[in-house]
Amino acid sequence: MFYRENGQFKTSYRADQQIFAIAQDRWAILAIIAFAAIGVPFLVDEYLFRAILIPFLILSLAALGVNILVGYCGQISLGSGAFMAVGAYMAYNTYIRIDGMPLIVALLAGGFFATLVGMFFGIPSLRVKGLYLAVATLAAQFFCDWAFLRVGWFTNNNASGSVSVSNLSVLGWTIDTPVEKYLFCLGFLVVFGLLAKNLVRSAIGREWMAIRDMDVAAAVIGIRPMYAKLSAFAVSSFIVGVAGALWGFVHLGSWEPAAFSIDRSFQLLFMVIIGGMGSIMGSFFGAAFIVVLPIFLNQFLPAVGALFGAEISTATVSHTEYMIFGALIVWFLIVEPHGLAKLWSIGKQKLRLWPFPH
Amino acid sequence: MAFFLETLFGGLMAGMLYSLVALGFVLIFKASGVFNFAQGAMVLVAALCMARFAEWIPAWTGLESKLLSNILAFAVSVVFMFLLAWVIERLVLRHLVNQEGVTLLMATLGITYFIDGFGQTLFGSDIYKIDVGMPKDPVFVLDGIFEGGVLVNQEDVVAALIAAVLVAALSLFFQKTGTGRALRAVADDHQAAQSIGIPLNRIWVIVWCVAGITALVAGIIWGSKLGVQFSLTTVALRALPVIILGGLTSVPGAIIGGLIIGVGEKLSEVYLGPLVGGGIEIWFAYMLALVFLLFRPQGLFGEKIIDRV
Questions:
Q1: Do B105 and A130 touch (CB under 8 A)?
Q2: A328 with B282: Cβ contact below 8 A
Q3: Cβ pair A150:B109 closer than 8 A
């Protein structure tokens, strides 16, 4: 009754081609952004910002990038952690090596270098696909892990091997409290989210999806596989790189290569699978799910154990977490390959008729 | 020269162990078209099972003989791997017949996580020892030719022998038995095999079981060298480039690929490593695989990849 596009007539091409064609969607998105920017800072305490909201924002940005590559273009990547690392370390180097470098430009520079690396490791995708490509992207992961650990230049020859940044500020606005960090990340996420949403419905987005659905057939109807695949790698690793830079600069503050290990790559891939492959909305669902689940289990399992008089150690909790993730991945792949986003869109379809199904 | 030979030998032996893990990958890929990421987790859980039961059986039954308890533990582990294979087929593979390779790959990623968590919940997550009485003392060979001779680990030699026997047995199994032929038929085409009456589900259980036993052997050898611990799973990641090099569908390819990677890793670490800061073992194999992917995607012995619309 409330969610229906009846009577919303489009009278111009402009109106016909908006990102959110349905008025209710438009208002809902605006309301969510407004609430996230204005409402949340008043409602939430510092712990929640640090433990859940900031990681959620940054990881959903990264998952968005991975989703473009894996979900839209169908090129599997196990090296997203490495692209995050490239973003973080190169942003760090641009930030400290060039005097007076603005923060945002440094972050974007991180994304730019991640693009270069991503495109380089995407070259094998022109010859191989699927499982073979997974190995090629793993090569990126292991190489970057090593390079940032062993090559002194990247860490500014720091003896401890970890790097840190402090005194972040944009145009005189100092970003130091959790609320400010949250707003800063939110800004990035909104901008990139809208860009990505727009990109995947453009010509290039349709090319990616054609390549994903059947690359040989796509090539036959005149889509250049090289251009389509490499552009997917480029866009994806740019976003992932910026997310990596944010993760280092804003969330961690100081970090070492272990922050971007292969586990991070798997985590991002899981977000995409659980959230929904080929869906921008799905990246947010997946990120929220994977950020919140471990915290929830940490609180919940010991409490359940106490009910039965059993003591549940942190090791058991982390093993349970592994098991639940594994089982969920398999479950989603079998039962709902399009993930949480599909459930969401089924819900929206239902809402169209509700409460008067005919 | 003696030093070079020593490095070469060490590399060959390490390569043999990579081949063992790679074999498990190749077996499953040949028979079901699944790129089994969970092989590493299977190595870990098999080794954990073996180590813990070798500890538990004497404690429960008061068995004195170490040999007997090791054999019993081995039997229990085989049964365990069989059950695991059966459960995986029942709950996962059966529902994913005829899906794309990438979907199956991601499903095995899920299986990896599950087995990692499950194995450690069941068997504990400390470092355990496996002691199957492998000779540990290094010996010197070729005394007459080089001064001081060449240092060789007896353990490595035994491991290499076991690996060789396993490979021979598997090749016989694949080429000469009816089941082996059925396995190859399934690998060629799921649907065609099913239509001529090959029971797909049973074949999958068999092949995952065989891969499980390979994992067990690899786990025992690695475990007695390094101790049974979580880092065993990374061994599987080291074995991935091996199969790219050797070809995904070739058993001899897994062996030769393993040897090349093993030797390449050791030699590059010793001779190239100091130039760039060391530790290049980790990515050397992957870079080699990357080059192969660019110029010869099917690997040394693999079948040529043909795309059909």
A1: yes
A2: no
A3: no
Q: Nearest to residue A320, comparing CAs of A302, A338, A336, A332?
A: A302
B302 falls within a domain:
no
CB B195 within 8 A of CB B83: no
Please return the burial class of A349, using the count of CB atoms within 10 Å of its CB with bins 0-12, 13-18 and 19+. Answer: exposed
* CA A265 and chain centroid, separation: 11
Q: How far apart are CA B182 and CA B287, in angstroms?
A: 36
Q: Which residue has the higher pLDDT, A128 or A345?
A: A345
The CA distance from A173 to the nearest CA of chain B, in Å, is 41
DSSP B118-152: HHHHHH-SS-B---S-----EEEE-TTTSTT-EEE
**Contact between residue B44 and residue B219 where contact means Cβ atoms under 8 Å apart:** yes
Placement of tokens 């699944």 in the chain: B34
Query: What total of structural domains would you count in chain B?
Result: 1
How confident is the model over A208-224, as pLDDT tens digits? 999 988 888 998 999 99
What six digits make up the tokens of A156?
């500014």
A1 touches B: beta carbon within 8 Å: no
Closest CA to A344 of A290, A291, A284: A284
CA distances from B105 to A289, A355, B1, B110 (A): 22, 42, 44, 9
Of A262, A233, A40, A41, residue with least CA distance to A123: A233
Q: What is the CATH number of the domain that holds B154?
A: 1.10.3470
Tell me if residue A174 falls in helix, strand or coil: strand
Longest dimension (CA), chain A: 71
Tell me the average pLDDT across A269-295: 88
Q: Which of residues 62-91 of A touch B (CB under 8 A)?
A: 74, 76
| Residue A162 contacts B where some CB pair is shorter than 8 Å | no
Which residue's structure tokens are 């790129």? B35
Which position has the token pair 């939110």? Answer: A186
Instruction: Indicate yes or no: CB of B107 within 8 angstroms of CB of A146.
Output: no
Is residue B60, in this structure, part of any structural domain at all?
yes
Residue B245 has a CB neighbour count (10 Å cut-off) of: 28
Query: CATH 3.30.420: does it fit domain A45-353?
Result: no
Provide, as residue numbers in chain A, all residues whose Cβ is less than 8 Å from the Cβ of B101.
130-131
Nearest residue to B260 via CA among B89, B22, B59: B22
DSSP 8-state symbol, A156? T
Span A20-46, mean pLDDT? 85
Measure the CA–CA gap between A64 and A62, rounded to whole angstroms. 5
Q: Looking at chain A, how many residues does it have?
A: 358
Q: Is it the case that residue B146 has pLDDT exceeding 70? A: no
- DSSP at A277: T
Does A143 lie at the interface with B, CB-CB under 8 angstroms? yes
Domain around B172: 2-295
Backbone dihedral region for residue A247 (phi beyond 0: left; psi -120 to 50: alpha; all else: beta):
alpha
**Rounded to whole angstroms, how far apart are CA atoms B248 and B22?**
9
Task: Report whether B244 contacts A139 (CB < 8 A).
Answer: no
